[in-house]
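On clarity, I found the account of how folds are encoded harder to follow than it need be. Since the whole study asks how a given chain folds, the encoding of that fold should be made plain. For the editor and my fellow referees, an illustration may be useful. An entry of this sort, consisting of the sequence and the corresponding backbone structure tokens, reads as follows:

:::
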Amino acid sequence: MEIFLHWLQSNLLSVFVTVFTLVLFYYYLIEKESASNLSKRYRHSIFEAQSKVFLNATQYLISGNKDLAIKEFLNAVDINRETIETYFALGGLFRSNGEIGKAISIHRSLIARDKIQESTRLRGLKELAIDFDKGGFIDKAIETYKDVLKINKDQSDVVLALCRIYEDIGEWDEAYGYRMLLSKVSRDNQSETISHILVQKAKKKFQYGQIRECLDDLESAFQFSPSVSAKILKLKINLATGKIDEAKNILIELLHENSIYTSFVFESLNENINSTKETNEIYLLKLNLLKDYFLKFDDAEVMKSPAVILTKMRILIEKNTFDRAYLFVKQWMDTSNNVTETLRVEFIKLAIRLDKKDEAIESMGIYLENINRSLTKHYCSNCGYNSDEIFWRCPQCHEWETIKFRWKI
């Protein structure tokens, strides 16, 4: 006992420090448990509040009230400013509601955060690019989409967005590059679209008289896909360079494979080629020879197509041979069950012009029974877009070669 007391006296300070430390540790454990329970209760209350907010926001979205949905998401942000998904939802709502500036601010604030995952930052960057895109800030959209690809090149939706933008603004070199990239990161076949883009590149060079470079792009276009637009451009080049026999061969190929596009072919050929006076004279001379050849072309299978008959009729009218045009179309209509509204309307106009009232009234009666009113000459078979202009790429759905013909009433 004496030995213990002697040891205690010698080590009193150490014993005191040890006991005091144990007491503090004991109280720390008690406070930690209490704080943990409080934290759980606090988190639970936040969860309940946010759940209620999200439920209300969803109900407003379903009912189509975006303004009230945005207000609810703002409430969610006030409850817990660390909720990333709330910010994304709010940014998307602002964008769809046309409030692009607010959407941009939200997505920029997300990207600027220090403690977020890189995947979240990438997502925010992509949303910011979409904001710029929807808002019409094309340069910023392009720059931001490219920033996304610097982080991850396998973003096929981002590559597709860049393809669409460059095709919209006619930057065909860039469009070609990104379509090639899309063919690598996407499962969809891009061959036909790439062919059309190469045709657009070739058209520009053709307008500037760069025939050799134009033919190089056109050859590449055929390697990807022998599209109708590629064949028409090759036909125009052959006419401009005086190669009438080659032009005839391409025309025959088009008539057999794509007779529905016959009117588009000759409408395209009638367009000004914007070249030198000498080249224009050669072109017009060879084009008239090609039209004469087409008028004499009498393949039984090709002549079943209303588009071919319509185009022949228009060329005959263009040459002021109205009676010949009338007899030609009337004979065909009398023996065919495939008379389109377009052809019948043209025939009625011609009959009136020739003062053939009985025939005009008869055809008008048949036409009125099957009338299908429309506003434009052309429409997109994919989305229904309407236009009087020829479009190989639909300005609305951005699909290629979906154009169809109808008569404007």
